[in-house]
Amino acid sequence: MSNLDRIVLIGPMGAGKSSIGRQLARALGYAFCDSDKELERRTGVDIPVIFDIEGEEGFRRREKAMIDELSRNDRCVLATGGGAILDADTRHRLRDRGLVIYLETSIAEQLRRTRRDRNRPLLQTEDPEARLRDLMEQRRPLYLETAHLTVNTDQAGVQQVVREIMRTLEERNSTQ
Length: 176
Prior knowledge:
Layout: E1 6-10, H1 17-28, E2 31-34, H2 35-43, H3 47-70, E3 76-79, H4 88-97, E4 99-104, H5 107-114, H6 128-146, E5 149-152, H7 158-175
Parallel strand pairs: 1-3, 1-4, 2-3, 4-5
Helix pairs in contact: 1-7, 2-3, 5-6
């Protein structure tokens, strides 16, 4: 799959970008990069601390630079943060540099998957469901604009989604 050297996973929090990304990278024999985890590793602090100190704007600046760097890696599956697509430059870079897969999931499934996770600053609110709805309304058009393909993760386990993506990649590769 030489023409698919970079796979980028986008989507909302709780869509499975990290879990699916790790397994997809393993299946492809690629490296796995998680922009949020790499940012935490390099700064030495969790994402909520960056939000507390620098605000969302400061975090987004760091995220943009991190994704710009990581999206240059060949033979890599890159999992991005849910808001990475807010920046127009990042959207264009991702689309130009790799095959972008939007991992789509419902609000109900996002709530189920994130309800105990305290490492999500945007959900530290009285009404996480309303917040997720607002985020989806804002971000879904950007996910769709950026993605080359969309895979729904609501009813499927990680391995099932990975198999579906692998099938799609093989089909794309055989027609190119």
